[in-house]
Fold this protein.
Amino acid sequence: MLDATVPALSLGALLALVQIVSIGVAGRRLGRSHGPSRFPDGAGGNSIGYKGDVILPLHVMPRDKAKPVLLRLDLDYAICSNVCIPVLAKAELPLPGDGEKDAAIDASEARVPKAVTLGEGDKLAIRAIRREAGGARPRIVVDVAAPPEAKLEVFAEGPTPDWSLPIPAPVAGAPAGLRRFAFDLDGLPPGATAKGATLRLTAATDEAAIEVTAPLE
């Protein structure tokens, strides 16, 4: 497994992970990182990404476990503050197979959002999703159960990457024991229709993350 430590990474900043040239490798698979966080983008809005360290796990299957494995990596990404600056990094990494990073990678993968059904879960659950009419655009309302002391984030994705939905924001009016988030149904690509589209909603705390897919009626 390979881990990458990045000081501050926006989800939109990682452009491509390309040209992973391997020696002595039978196969490889890029894993998923843990749930992101919301942070100010410096222009009056918010972005989604990571602060501090983030692990991007790469599962490597050696051709021969008795022989060393070497990875050569070209990483194309951007460093973003008020503007984004493209960067191309190159690295060469021998994998000794001693398991030195396994504990950190396992802990990160334990926080990868787990797919659940609507309402499933005890401490962390997305209880209800509904669409409200009114205003310039329809609004999506999401009710979430989470420990009262936990920092809770909710994120929304459309059925394809060209959907750019707003970040759900906390709002008042949740039933007792729940927290409510809402966002306008905005950011659809040209020609797309919301009716019948499937949204993926992610709820994340510092300890766990879940994701629910739900069709819009």
About this structure: The mean pLDDT is 79. The chain has two domains: 8-109, 114-215. The domain at 114-215 is CATH 2.60.40 (Immunoglobulin-like). The chain is about 5% helix and 45% strand.
